[in-house]
């Protein structure tokens, strides 16, 4: 049992820099069809990491013109709405975490979508029975009030230096002129082809001439270009009080279905009032102390900050830097299992539920749960939750319940600027392709975030904090994270898509970087395990096909294979104003790391 000190952390930071400094950085100018994705870049003037080269280039363009990290984050996010339309866009929501270098403080925005004011616990029931997920998702019922446009405006108002219209220009140009279709975009279109054909406007946009987009072809979205231009000219009021919002409401209330499809796209309840009263919320971040560092993330309505934080607190007493690979993964998996058991019982929208956020993040509660972990045995899932309000040593304060399903898409971006400001921002329309419903003429898909609610109580014996309700925000697993040192300066910032696997991806990447001393790009690339209070832990092939799997099975673990978990990005502060940007090497076709001025 030990605590790595500051000296060891300094060595980790320098060693990561030495490993990565020779990596080639792509040109920081606008991306072109010939621009290759590069997973790591080192240099000065700021950095951007995302899943897409065009999107990262949009952020770099804004940084080069004197914009700050917030300006660049909004520009990158808007560009992702063009090139990653099945993961994010103005029809969705997300969570924004910002480090202010001047005040050395962290701030957050909850831009989660909300249920209609007319919603109740029976939102996803018909004739007294819960709808299936498939029946609910491709319907107006699944669509929440979008929060992404309000998040962009709130972030720019609070901390930005450029107008919305200015930072939307790169994305508007990208939508108008088009981007090059890659394998990931085609395969995601193919996986949604059947339901995209239910909706003529979706099929017209994403299945040009009735066919899947061809890899290497140019994909243009003039409707989205017009939407961005209108938002730039009129502001986000065009969505919350204007014509775009009217179009959203009409689409949700009367989903435009192809009559020949035979699909029952149930109408939603979203109304003009729901848009008019929506607010992106400034709120305090979660904060967890780990290895002498301060780990900041997003508080409920997302469960990301509390669940990652609790798991880190559970792992605090174990020296993971000296553990074998087997014991490291064993403790990481068990901490995840416990934290997810507690998440399911206690976390929901704090505006509607009494969420014990402070107690979930207390070291006392973590210690009371950590004693459940044994070096030579495995806990059984689903594990019963503890009671953070009344911690009892090795106590289980309730009936076990499984973790509910969340769609596994989303996208994450991480940005730093030359002044030292940092943004970690995860945005989403929930599952790949969202609801499948495109707003006619507007060029963007609507979210299916309301399916993140529990359709019925996960555990009938106790109150479920994640049932639908009027104006309520469904629980999320989004976990944008910023880690500061003892002097409140950034060490690393990161995040990931992946539904509930976001939490485990962020946790594993953090421990890989901070405890196992992996360079950031290698901590991101490391094969992943994801345990979410389920009977079996998901393993990527790099672990499933390795010898460590049999050693973990000897302890009692059970596994199932998952071909791909998450798609993280991050930035790391290096000495003397230098930044390292890191993204995936392979997952989702690889990510794109860029800096303003690459180091020689």
UniProtKB/TrEMBL annotation:
Signal peptide coordinates: 1-31
Annotated metabolic or biological route of this protein: Sulfur metabolism; glutathione metabolism
Statement: the UniProt record of this protein carries the keyword Hydrolase: yes
Region (Disordered), start-end ranges: 457-480
Modification comment: Cleaved by autocatalysis into a large and a small subunit.
This protein's UniProt keywords: Acyltransferase, Glutathione biosynthesis, Hydrolase, Signal, Transferase, Zymogen
One Pfam family cited in the UniProt record for this chain: G_glu_transpept
Swiss-Prot/TrEMBL catalytic activity: an N-terminal (5-L-glutamyl)-[peptide] + an alpha-amino acid = 5-L-glutamyl amino acid + an N-terminal L-alpha-aminoacyl-[peptide]; glutathione + H2O = L-cysteinylglycine + L-glutamate; an S-substituted glutathione + H2O = an S-substituted L-cysteinylglycine + L-glutamate
MF-aspect GO terms: leukotriene C4 gamma-glutamyl transferase activity
EC number, as in UniProt: 2.3.2.2, 3.4.19.13
Subunit-level organization: This enzyme consists of two polypeptide chains, which are synthesized in precursor form from a single polypeptide.
Family designation: Belongs to the gamma-glutamyltransferase family.
NCBIfam families documented for this protein: g_glut_trans
Protein name: Glutathione hydrolase proenzyme
